[in-house]
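hey m, so remember when u said the tokens were messed up on ur end? i reran from scratch. heres the input so u can diff it against urs
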Amino acid sequence: MLMKNLKYLFLIFCSFSIGQNVTVNSGATITVGSGKYISIAGNFSNSGTTTLNSSSNSYSALLVSGSSSGNITYNRYVNTVGSGEWDLVGSPVGSQSISGFVSSNSGSVATSGSTYAIGTYSNASGGGWSNYTTSSGSNDVANAGNFPAGTGYQMASASGGTLAFTGTVATSDQTVAITDNSGSGGTKWNLVANPFPSYLNGNSNAGTNNFFSTNSGVLHDSYAAIYGWDADGSGYTPYNATSTWFIAPGQAFFVASANASGSSVAFNENMQNASPSSYDDFVANTVQDEVEIGLYNGDSRLDYTKLFFIPGLTLGLDKGYDAGHFNQSAPMMTRLSEGDEGYGMVYNAMGQQHLSQEVTIPLEINQSAGTNFTVRLESSTADDLKIYLQDTFKNTLTLLNE
């Protein structure tokens, strides 16, 4: 095949699959444009320059089914340092030192004095976010070591653009330890990331081998989802079995552990998908009937909650479909209609048969006394469904459809 041994070949904005080994010799260059991919069924040996590019809504992918040697560079888009923006990112390559990353991206990584916009998250008591600095101590970037495979970070670029990760391509399964420290003053949340320079199938709607099906057993029952940061200050969006989604290269997200003694999540090689249905991060397409309700103060949307109607589900907790709100003090949440376990839900899923039945869904609104707010029906794919807001104090019903 023509591309078996690459000497001085320049490939720009390309997508292709190769059914054999690929060798990139010294002096050769491969550049994969945003939204494009290379899938190699054999081994990959790189002595030249292999670069993958991305933008704010489009990522490239490299999938190597065999072994891999040599370094690649992934220019990974990272959101700006603006208030409520930033990004959750992990390294899509191996053996990338954190100090080397800072040096090679000097001027592109946002800074504030001696502090870099690169931070870790700890769910231990007294933990939380902690950014690397140039000062000596526990957060000294000079002694930070390498980015661990599958670990997520908060990160921001100076003005919205790409940061270069240079290292090896993972060609084996990766695991990341997670734990629930909520019983000892910490939290249940763990920040993990896709360690491959390729997309991963998010759930079974995306592919048979996928992150959610493989790891749902170690996730908290009421938070059986992955939680992605929206990078616009609005908070976190859960992704579970209610839609079709993929995980972009280097994409980080939170998962809630179900085990105080610790367990691990797996990022398996067979989850990789070089050519998903879209090349954005967290591509989500709802596959069932859905209702979205918003809470507003004037024209400012404070929060939202979604109802799903899916065959086979109940009014109680359906793990993998119902999802607790990341922030349990959020402006608006619902509660389960049956078997409420004390968690406010951002996703409340029930059986499709409930579309034609009268169902009462408790709505929890957290606003200061005297605050004006409006509850709106944002959207509904169930055309004949009537949704009423019941005020139990005034004993009134308001048809939100109108």
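this time it looks ok to me. The mean pLDDT is 93. if urs says something different then somethings off w ur setup not the seq
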